[in-house]
Automatic annotation (TrEMBL):
It is found in: Cytoplasm. It catalyses: 4 Fe(2+) + O2 + 6 H2O = 4 iron(III) oxide-hydroxide + 12 H(+). Iron-storage protein. May alleviate iron toxicity in the presence of oxygen. One of its GO terms (molecular function) is oxidoreductase activity. Its EC number is 1.16.3.2. Pfam families: Ferritin. One of its GO terms (cellular component) is cytoplasm. Transmembrane segments: none annotated. Coiled coil: none annotated. GO terms for biological process: intracellular iron ion homeostasis; iron ion transport. This is Ferritin. Residues 1-144 form the Ferritin-like diiron domain.
Length: 167
């Protein structure tokens, strides 16, 4: 495996692990603040990020690289509002998308079409997750401070069908 690309993939393992820990922390916050639907949503997101991480670990090791499992800093847990929770979600997804785009760029620079091909799954995944984060944040902006709106948002969050414009 090209060393520069291996380094970038290992960095991506860290970002996916951080996202998984962040979403688990957000699930906890939602759980203890009475938002059980939001908690379920973020428990699931956390699991998905762990899958993203493991997929990278296996890929690196299968291609004769060495995957490095990183230490993770304590994720943020000082949220005040649902809005802050979902702003953090969108920021996190946008950051991950930027890092993935950078890997794609570097793959092309190094003519590493193998990794480029592997990363297409992440590109599609990010489009979907960013669309979800943006849609949910837009809904919360409409709801504003309305408590009954928050109640309905929490009740319905796991039933929303998010349209992915890329599909
Ligand atoms: Fe795997 Fe949503 O970043």
């Amino acid at each position: 495996m090209i060393p520069e690309i291996e380094k970038l993939l290992n960095e991506q393992i860290t970002y996916e692990a951080k996202a998984s820990a962040q979403y688990l922390s957000m699930a906890c916050w939602a759980d203890v603040n009475g938002y059980n639907g939001v908690a379920d949503f973020f428990y699931t997101q956390s699991e998905e990020e762990r899958v993203h991480m493991t997929k990278l670990v296996k890929f690196i090791n299968e291609r004769s690289g060495i995957a490095v499992i990183p230490a993770i800093d304590k994720p943020r847990d000082d949220f005040k509002t649902l809005m802050e929770l979902f702003e953090t979600f969108l920021d996190s997804e946008e950051f991950v998308t930027a890092r993935i785009n950078n890997i794609i760029y570097e793959c092309l620079q190094h003519k590493d079409y193998n990794v480029h091909n592997f990363m297409q799954w992440y590109v599609a995944e990010q489009l979907e997750e960013e669309a979800t984060a943006r849609t949910l944040l837009d809904k919360l902006k409409i709801i504003g401070d309305d408590k009954s709106g928050h109640y309905l948002f929490d009740r319905d969050i796991n039933t929303f069908q998010i349209e992915d414009s890329a599909k």
